[in-house]
Structures are given as C-alpha cells and as structure tokens.
Specification:
Mean pLDDT: 88
CATH class: Mainly Alpha
Largest sheet: none
Number of domains: 1
Radius of gyration: 20 Å
Structural class: mainly alpha
Order of helices and strands: HHHHHHHHHHHHH
C-alpha cells in the first residue's frame, strides 16, 4: 500500500468518524445525567438540514454550524419538555423525536436537494492543508479539531469541575441529589440541550465536511451508532474517541472496497457497510448479558425523576 493511499485512507477515516464523535459526546453527557435520549438520529438530521440551509443562504459555514447547534438543541427541548416536565416514557419519546427529525429534514430539505455547497475548508495555510504529506495533520476542517477539543472538555467537565460532579450525582442518585438542594430537572434540561447541540453539529458535518450537497437521510443511521458507542465506551470520553474512529474505519473500508481492489476486496463492500450495525447489535447483546454485573452505566439512566417532597 502506497503512502499516498494510506494518507487518503486516514483523511477519509477522520472525516467519517467526526460526526459520530460529536453525537456520541453529546449523548454521553445526557446519559451521565440519568436521561436516555434515543432521538440522536433525528437531532442529527435536523442539524444537518438547518446547517446546510443557513450555509447555502448566507455563504458562511460558520453560521451554518451555529445554526445546526441551535436546531439540534431546539429539537432536544421537545424531548426534554415531554420527558422531564411531563414525565413521559423516555424511550418512546426518543423514538418519536427520531421520526420527527427524519420527517422534518425530508420536508425542509426538499428545496435544497441536489444544490451544490462549498465544503468547510481547513483553517491552515494552503501550503500545509494541501501538502502531499502534511495534509494528514493540517488538511481537515475546523470541526475535526473542535471535536478533539470537545473530548478533552467533556472529560474535564465530568471529572474536574463542580458542575460535572453535580451532573454525575444527578445521574447516579437523583433523589439524594434533590435532597441536598441540587436542581435535578434543571441539570437534566441543560444536559439534554448540550446533547442536542452536539448532535446538531455532528449532523452538520455531513453536508459541510463530507458531502457538498443535501440528500434526504444523509446521516444514514449514524445516530444509532453513536448511541451504541456510548455504551461501547463505558461512558468514558477517551474510549469514545477510540470507538468513534473504530466505527469510522469500518465505514472507510466500505468506501475503499467499492472503489479499489487489492486488500480491500477481502470482504464484500456490503459486508463492510453492515459491520457498524452488526457491532451495534453485538454491543447491546453484551450489555444485556452483563446487566447484573458492575457496569459504568449511571444508576438512574432512563428512570423518571419523581421527587418525594
């Protein structure tokens, strides 16, 4: 394998992994607060279509990313009101949010289908961003570098700050946290909003970084992979980073199996395409088998908060 092909694979791998990483980081924070939001796919699609539309109309991908974050957060507030304020079932509401996001993106994005869009380019000088070898470090969009920053930020928030301690306390024992004066519902609202914003940014990566146009169903189920990835990573940000790139590698192999020969033809491209979803099922099965063992899952995950006083 030539060095040029290796660099091309790495660049494709990073691009394919970044949307999953954003969405999974947001969901990790949500689940650490004790909330299970299965609407990640819907929020990603909402962020993707809004990010594309704003970028197309304004010509600014920066505004597109901000709009995508707000759109994802706004969609997450539908889930938050229904589950946190009205105490509805979190699983059913999350699935409904995915259906809503899928329908909304299809309807809103119909006017933009097939229209071209300039990709989000690297912020580094062209001499570095397009260098045959240095582009493996400097040739990415700003969102790629931002995703690395967010991994560190989420780890620092959860492990080194008082708000992170409160968030984890709410996720582990909401009644005890409430009894000592922590605003459980407010903390969970903030966590859900953050998760929605991150999912929106992850969705915006598709039209702004990976594909220069809008296509219905652009995220192709990556939100579900992000959900499984949180469990796969045992709710730890650094494991999340490794897992996102592992899933991204499998997706990259699918693309190169279709376009190239040699070692990429060991497995059919269809099997490569199915592997992330097979891995998702495998992770869920393993978690089900180990349900009674000591895991890192927040103790209150998915349970409605009903204060005793």
């Amino acid at each position: 394998m030539s060095i040029e092909l290796t660099i091309a694979i790495i660049i494709t791998l990073v691009g394919a992994s970044t949307p999953i990483l954003f969405a999974a980081l947001g969901e990790l924070v949500v689940e650490k607060s004790g909330v299970l939001n299965l609407g990640v796919e819907g929020m990603m699609l909402t962020g993707a279509v809004v990010g594309f539309a704003v970028t197309f109309e304004t010509g600014s991908p920066w505004l597109g990313v901000v709009a995508a974050a707000f759109a994802g957060a706004a969609a997450s507030m539908i889930f938050a009101v229904v589950t946190l304020t009205l105490s509805a079932n979190q699983v059913a509401t999350g699935l409904a949010l995915t259906i809503f996001g899928t329908g909304f993106s299809a309807l809103f994005g119909k006017a933009y289908t097939g229209k071209p869009l300039a990709l989000f380019r690297s912020v580094f000088p062209p001499e570095l961003a397009t260098h045959p070898y240095l582009k493996v470090i400097f040739g990415y969009s700003p969102l790629v570098y931002f995703s690395f920053i967010m991994v560190v930020a989420v780890w620092w928030l959860l492990r080194r700050t008082r708000p992170g301690l409160i968030l984890r306390a709410v996720g582990e024992n909401d009644l005890s946290a409430h009894s000592i004066g922590y605003p459980v519902i407010a903390v969970r609202y903030a966590a859900v909003a953050f998760g929605g914003a991150m999912a929106g940014i992850g969705g915006a990566c598709f039209p702004l970084v990976l594909t220069p146009q809008w296509v219905e169903g652009l995220t192709a189920g990556r939100g579900w992979i992000a959900l499984a990835l949180v469990v796969f990573a045992a709710w730890r940000p650094y494991r999340l980073l490794a897992g996102a790139y592992l899933f991204g590698l499998v997706g990259t192999m699918e693309l190169y199996a279709k376009a190239a020969g040699g070692p990429f033809r060991i497995l059919p491209s269809e099997l490569w395409a199915s592997m992330p979803y097979l891995a998702t099922i495998l992770v869920l099965v393993l978690i089900s088998i180990r349900r009674n063992s000591n895991t890192s899952a927040p103790a209150c995950l998915g349970k409605p908060f009903v204060p005793t006083s």
